[in-house]
Amino acid sequence: MATPEKAPADRKKVPLRACIGCRVSKPKMELVRIVRTPEGQVLVDTPKGKLNGRGAYICPQVVCFDLAIKKRALNHVLKVTMTAEETNAVKDGFIKRLISAAPEMTNR
Fold this sequence. Notes:
By secondary structure, the protein is an alpha+beta fold. It is built from 3 helices and 5 strands, in the order βββββααα. The protein has helices spanning 62-70, 73-78, 84-106, and strands spanning 16-18, 25-27, 32-36, 42-44, 54-58. The strands form 2 sheets. A 3-stranded antiparallel sheet has the order 4-3-5. It comes from Candidatus Wirthbacteria bacterium CG2_30_54_11. Residues 17-90 form the YlxR domain.
């Protein structure tokens, strides 16, 4: 029986996550994390993804966010029922995050 080949020690494993809108797997750091905190608030996570709570990952595109809302995937994954006002507040935070991350995206 042959032993499986090991990855070189200098290469780190990149964690992958699936976008809940389009279902495409991408490296975790390329996605935006939406979090339901233990207090029940739904927020857009920090760029490093350090907020405590249940998270869902979405591509940094408004189309994927809208698709996640349309499919009710965000409510399902976060195990929460959001009102229209809460959804709009999260969408505003999502768009602000995209705008603030725009310079980072162009440098890649």
